[in-house]
Amino acid sequence: MSVTERFLRYVAYDTQSDENSTTVPSTEKQKILGAALAAELSQMGLQGAHMDDHGYVYAWLPATPGCEGVPCVGLIAHMDTSPDASGANVKPRIVEYQGGDIVLNEEQGIVMREADFESLARYKGQHLIVTDGTTLLGADDKAGVAEIFTAVEYLASHPEVKHGRIAVGITPDEEVGQGADHFDVEGFGAAVAYTVDGGELGEIEYENFNAANAGVYFHGVNIHPGSAKNKMKNALLMAIEFMNMMPPAETPAHTEGYEGFYHLHDMKGNETEAELHFIIRDHDREKFEERKQYLGRVAAYLDGKYGKGSVELYLKDSYYNMKEKIEPHMYLILRARAAMEKAGVTPQVVPIRGGTDGARLSYMGLPCPNLSTGGVNFHGVREYIPVESLEKMVEVLINLVTVEE
């Protein structure tokens, strides 16, 4: 089966995760694809193929004769899709792109405009898999799953290609920050691994944000407006005051590269109770800690101004920059560069303005940088991936695990 056929089959499964769920995995529907993936790995001839009770899929391809002593390399991707856009009833199609705008949905007037998406210019003459504009595509990260599966299928059927033991792991719930929560590192058996969960073809990532979630809760006193003087304490106004004390240029819309930010992603409330929910990101650990401390100072100031118990701040770290765990194993980056160059792909080492399972896994004892999938515009209805990028990444992964004679 080609990587494109495999990818189109996977995106038909709705595997959207749910950040508000208390179950593991966060949505039961992820297990439907997980069971199919485990069966597929078994049919390819991989050993130990199974899905565990938490929805994680594992298998391994034995080393070829003479390569049993080569350290085991893991290849990891995630099966869930982002809660940011619907992943149900995905209707993909392949567009032979010759430039200009792409009409995704004529009936609803949904267009991917070349002027708005400069990446399109890089793919003229290629075949782009797009949606009908009503759902995301799911290249994040079903493209990674399809690429890994196609690579190991090739290796399983070509025993003349020498390689050590290869472990395959597919996780649920990466998009809600829980993909590594129940990953069986010891049972996985890999010395090192790569997540295949990045963006455009050629990206290699081993630096990611330090990340935390913050919830700020405002407790007011509601009095009828007609008799509220010197009595009402409006929780909504306290929340607005809190926001006015946040650095206006330190948001995702004003930052790039290694620059960190505060991102307000949810707010609700009334005069009595209000909430602000942030994610905090910074590549630099010291600056990351300073960001959390700043939120604490603002909350403490407003709590003092409006009376003790008026403002509560809850902080929870999500993951940390994997750089310090990868730097002792920089051969992993050199190996990935060489695998790409051999496939005719120009490697580009870039920082992740986000996180992957690999960040958490690296702190769990499994050094795990991240490789591109070839996908573009993740988490939205204008997501796409070139067929040519899918095919090249299969070649890259085969090169990555091949033992040179």
From TrEMBL:
InterPro entries the UniProt entry points to: ArgE/DapE_CS (IPR001261), Bact_exopeptidase_dim_dom (IPR036264), Peptidase_M20 (IPR002933), Peptidase_M20_dimer (IPR011650), Peptidase_M20B (IPR010161)
Peptidase M20 dimerisation domain residues: 206-308
Domain of life of the source: Bacteria
Binding-site residues for Zn(2+) 2, renumbered to this chain: D140, E175, H379
Catalytic activity: Release of the N-terminal residue from a tripeptide
Listed cofactors: Zn(2+)
Record: active site: D80, E174 (proton acceptor)
Keywords: Aminopeptidase, Hydrolase, Metal-binding, Metalloprotease, Protease, Zinc
EC numbers: 3.4.11.4
Single GO BP term: proteolysis
Binding positions for Zn(2+) 1 per the UniProt entry: H78, D140, D197
PROSITE patterns from the UniProt entry: ARGE_DAPE_CPG2_1, ARGE_DAPE_CPG2_2
GO molecular function, one term: zinc ion binding
Family stated for the protein in its record: Belongs to the peptidase M20B family.
Protein name (record): Peptidase T
Species the sequence originates in: Pseudoflavonifractor capillosus ATCC 29799
